Amino acid sequence: MMPSSPFVISFLLLVSVPVLYVLAPRILPPKTLPSIPDRDEIDDLALFRRATLASAAGGGGGDGLRRHPAVPPKIAFMFLTNSDLSFAPLWERFFHGHERLFNVYIHADPSTRFLLPLTPSFRGRFIHAKATQRASPTLISAARRLLAAALLDDPANAFFALISQHCIPLHSFRFTYDAFLADPGAPAPSRGDGALHRRHRSFIEIVAGDPELLKRYVARGDNVMLPEVSFDQFRYGSQFFVLARRHAVLVVRDRRLWNKFKLPCLKSREDSCYPEEHYFPTLLEMQDPEGCTHYTLTRVNWTDSVGGHPHTYQLPEISGDLIKDLRTSNSTYSYLFARKFSPDCLDPLLKLADSVIFRD
């Protein structure tokens, strides 16, 4: 006769609870996309703390122009990649002759296999990288690592340009450099320590009011972003930006908003999950809206996007007229960079380099 007393039934139920607790995650599909591994988060926090302390000790909270008058301000070109740097030869032509005015930093996904040889400006410029993937905050972490590495590496880095491996320059280096330093929309110089100092703006797209913005805001859950970020404060913009030094420090120092944006999106809302397009615009809009241009300097063609990817320019499309069209902008400046280009565009772009691209 099988035991059927209430005691036995209660005992079996009690035993089954921990078993279900262990087995359920292996049987049921996950409700969220993968989160950032704890080990990666700990490593990043240590890196960001070092960058923040070093910037504070060196007076780097400003625009990097105050305590090193003998050293010209530099641009940190930060390449975020998961494939070959196919356009390195074009960038090498862009950099040539301006070695005192720039630094290169590369964050390459650890799974990346580089088959093409690196040009001189890119050799030995890799930072310690972690795995990245779409629809996850890992792309934010990668950009923050690049910023931290650049802050630690050279106190003369005054601007921090995030670039993809599919990106090309649209103007000469000198034109690009002068555009950053001579921003006509920046506040008038202020007097400090007996000298005039300009607080340069960051070139970052910051947009509100998009019809799809609510879907993106609730990608992690209906009320998850509260109370740190209300829907009225939530912004979006291009993944690619140029930050002034004080904003680079602000980003690596941030913990409050990061604790929200690092949360994984719900799997059911994966199509609305673009953390890297929201974190930086939202943070800077909340902290220093007047210090930002609200537009990006990287041209992207979204007219025939596929799966969240912009149009990729192919070999037959490359021409001098295309370069001139890509420069056209409604903002104060023409676009300085453009993406996305297929690797086989390199040769025709090199042929246009001196006659069109670097001829301002």
TrEMBL record:
Classification via InterPro entries: BC10-like, Glyco_trans_14
What is this protein called in UniProt? Glycosyltransferase
Location(s), subcellular: Membrane
* UniProt keyword Transmembrane helix, yes or no: yes
**Bilayer-spanning residue ranges:** 6-24
Describe its membrane topology: Single-pass type II membrane protein
**One Gene Ontology molecular-function label:** glycosyltransferase activity
Choose one Gene Ontology CC annotation of this protein and give it: membrane
Listed A to Z, the keywords are:
Glycoprotein, Glycosyltransferase, Membrane, Transferase, Transmembrane, Transmembrane helix
> In terms of domain of life, where is this protein from?
Eukaryota
